[in-house]
Design goal:
Structural class: alpha/beta
Strand order of the largest sheet: 9-8-10-6-7-11
Helix content: 10-25%
Distance between the termini: 46 Å
CATH topology of the largest domain: Rossmann fold
CATH architecture of the largest domain: 3-Layer(aba) Sandwich
Number of domains: 3
CATH superfamily of the largest domain: NADH-ubiquinone oxidoreductase 51kDa subunit
Number of strands: 18
């Protein structure tokens, strides 16, 4: 029996404890603590894997689906031998070649084309790959759930209808936690946008330690930090769904849900900001790229700013974690530096330093670690 299956069959509480200790939160942009969804595992029988990745030139989930297909297959097999009846992977039909074929084969999936949707949930079992048309809005979990399965949730949650919904990178992190007992130390993240002179920033994809500064990412993409002028606006998210970052680029660290960081002209941001602060520049700006970065490059920054709350926009629903280190402490990569609060009113997860070094600062929102001698 595999370690994953043994853990899954032991108890739901054990699974949630592992996911919380490993520091998992939704990697698809929301950053909601993963264990909070899996607490309801006994009440669901289906998993929807959101593999849409609608933002232009983003290849995080596509790369994981192709290069880590065997790991995902092992996880899905264990879940199907345990509490779940089906695992539905919702992807764009335009991405099937060359990205999805290895995952289809590794999972021995049943495949549905756009013309065959929505699927009949009652007669669907095992791993199912559901291909949709290439429509941006299908990246929203409630829209994808309706398009792929005919489930209309309204203002309810997918769990209320027997579904857990997670994106592909989150599921890969679940596999790492359950199979290897490894915490979340890195994030796959894209860098894109425009310089002050209007030229396009070289599009890059990085495997960055959690807490890597935005300035370090742009420097690795060939952008001189001195040119991050005041007329540039730092945003988090892709062209169709992004939000202004209120902190300087050298202090804003990559979170566990950071998919893409971009620099935009402040006038474009002002013209194209809509409800709840969402910025949508997918149409007014040109995102055509003939050579997008589809394989990650690993970064090794001299310092990190590890966030100790998964996503501040959730307010009281998500709490910051309790720091376990102080200024000047020596730490080792992978070490637990903040733990979930025992008295938390909201959800919180563990956080770990991804690098060796010394603690340079501890604040209510982050722990800064600098490598020795920096």
């Amino acid at each position: 029996m595999s370690r994953i299956l043994e853990t899954i069959r032991s108890s739901e509480a054990d699974i949630c404890d592992i996911l919380q200790r490993s520091g998992l939160s939704g990697a698809g942009g929301g950053g909601f603590p993963t264990y909070a969804k899996w607490r309801s595992l006994a009440d669901v029988d289906r998993l929807l894997v959101n593999h849409q990745e609608s933002e232009p030139n983003c290849y995080v989930d596509k790369w994981i689906g192709r290069e880590r297909a065997d790991a995902l297959a092992e996880l899905f097999e264990a879940l199907l031998a345990g509490p779940l009846e089906s695992v539905v992977i919702g992807a764009k039909h335009s991405d099937r070649d060359p990205w999805l074929r290895p995952l289809e084969e590794a999972t021995d999936a049943t495949v549905y084309t756009p013309a065959e949707l929505p699927i009949d949930q009652a007669s669907t079992a095992g791993v199912v790959v559901v291909y949709t048309h290439d429509t941006y809005e299908y990246g929203m979990e409630n829209v994808l759930l309706q398009q792929a399965t005919g489930t209309v949730i309204g203002k309810d949650l997918p769990i209320d209808y027997g579904w857990i919904v997670q994106n592909t990178e989150t599921m890969y992190n679940v596999w790492r936690a359950l199979a290897l007992d490894e915490p979340v130390l890195h994030k796959l993240v894209h860098v894109d946008g425009y310089r002050a002179d209007g030229s396009r920033i070289p599009h890059r994809m990085f495997e960055a330690p959690i807490g890597t500064s935005a300035a370090a990412l742009f420097a690795a993409a060939g952008v001189d930090p001195d040119t991050l002028a005041s007329d540039r606006t730092l945003v988090e998210g892709g062209p169709g769904w992004c939000f202004t970052v209120q902190r300087p680029a050298d202090r804003y660290g990559v979170t566990k849900h950071t998919n893409c960081l971009m620099l935009l002209d402040e006038a474009d941001v002002e013209r194209h900001t809509y409800g709840n602060g969402r910025i949508n520049v997918i149409e007014p700006l040109d995102w055509t790229r003939s050579d997008p970065d589809t394989t990650p490059t690993t970064l090794d920054p001299p310092r990190v700013h590890v966030p100790i709350v998964t996503n501040e926009t959730y307010g009281d629903l998500v709490d910051e974690s309790a720091p376990l280190v102080e200024f000047g402490d020596a730490v080792t990569g992978g070490q637990l530096v903040a733990e979930p609060r025992a008295d938390a009113s909201g959800f919180s997860v563990a956080h770990h330093t991804p690098i060796d070094g010394e603690v340079a600062d501890v604040t209510p929102r982050e722990i800064e670690v600098r490598r020795h001698g920096v």
